[in-house]
């Protein structure tokens, strides 16, 4: 190759490099301006959305309620018609906490968007497992041991009625034990009274729908009460008190011992 040819080749390569450099710079500039335009368009769209009716809440739906009223959940959420959808979604954690704290029977709440303008609130509830009877008024006792402040003048549920209980460790233990009682036994339990006993602060008297009574200690309640049907068969149609606190004794209502128990709330020692 001659010197002239080499010189022309170098010039051609330099021209190609210069053209590639200009093309690369143009592409970068195009991408940069394209991103700016997209950002500008997005800002316009977002601004238009924020001032349009489509950015506002126009409906709230509640799902998962059983005992709690939907209206109570809605009020607990503090969401109002016309609130910003974006604000509601941004503050969903605070809204969920507000629902759970304002309604003790709600165990969990979840806020989501359904469609463009409807906020959906899905909740889970603590189940009512018993009722506390106090001065002729019934109060719900939840599965987590909480006694609700709202009272009912009457109940139609077949859940047991508890007497003399208060919120705390004794009630919690009672609910745990009662959960282990067989359903066939639960079906004939009417009332459970916490006895005022100096020797056993967990002594309960259970009133059965068949007319009998059972005396038991809460820590062993499920274990012993589950044998109730078999024990009832051994006494036939005779009615009385089954003392299951320390053993298994039957005391007829017509006996002097039961009369003594009614007067003192204490069972005399039974010799085996």
TrEMBL record:
Superkingdom of the organism of origin: Bacteria
A Pfam family that the UniProt record links to this protein: POTRA_1
Bilayer-spanning residue ranges: 29-51
Domain called POTRA: residue spans: 55-126
UniProt GO cellular component terms: cell division site; plasma membrane
UniProt keyword terms in alphabetical order: Cell cycle, Cell division, Cell membrane, Membrane, Transmembrane, Transmembrane helix
GO biological process: FtsZ-dependent cytokinesis
Primary residence: membrane
Protein location: Cell membrane; Membrane
Membrane-related topology note: Single-pass type II membrane protein
PANTHER family to which the protein is assigned, alphabetical: CELL DIVISION PROTEIN DIVIB (PTHR37820), CELL DIVISION PROTEIN FTSQ (PTHR37820:SF1)
Family statement drawn from the similarity comment of this UniProt entry: Belongs to the FtsQ/DivIB family. DivIB subfamily.
Stated role: Cell division protein that may be involved in stabilizing or promoting the assembly of the division complex.
Protein name: Cell division protein DivIB
Protein species of origin: Alkalibacterium olivapovliticus
Taxonomic path: Bacteria, Bacillati, Bacillota, Bacilli, Lactobacillales
